[in-house]
Amino acid sequence: MSFLIFLAIGLGTIWFGLKVKEEVAQIAAAITGAIFLLWGLTLTPQPFLVSAEVIAVLAVFRLCLRCCDCD
């Protein structure tokens, strides 16, 4: 379950970067957060990745249908 720690640190660092006013700190936090997120994703077991991908694809597909007004 170490992947959850890396994902949480990555998301927390990106959130911190969005709240900071200084530009250099924002860039540093975004890069650090992205590295932690990628590290967390590489440690994530395959079933979690597949389920997250299916949920993301379904969410984007439903959003695209709303944008295009396709029925």
Features:
single chain; mainly alpha; 71 residues; 0% strand; 87% helix
Describe the SSE topology.
Blueprint lengths: L1 H18 L3 H21 L2 H23 L3
Written overview of the protein:
- With 71 residues, this protein is mainly alpha-helical.
- It has one domain.
- The chain is built from three helices and no strands.
- The longest helix has 23 residues.
- It starts with a helix and ends with a helix.
Mean pLDDT: 88
**Which regions have little confidence, pLDDT < 50, spanning 5+ residues?**
none
Helices and strands, in order, run as: HHH
Kindly state the percentage of residues in helix: over 70%
Integer-rounded radius of gyration: 16 Å
Strand content: under 5%
Oligomer: single chain
Could you give the distance between the termini? 41 Å
H/I helix tally: 3
> What structural class do you assign from the helix and strand content?
mainly alpha
Coarse morphology: flat
User: How many strands, what sense, and barrel or not for the largest sheet?
Assistant: none
Number of strands: 0
In short:
This protein is mainly alpha-helical and 71 residues long.
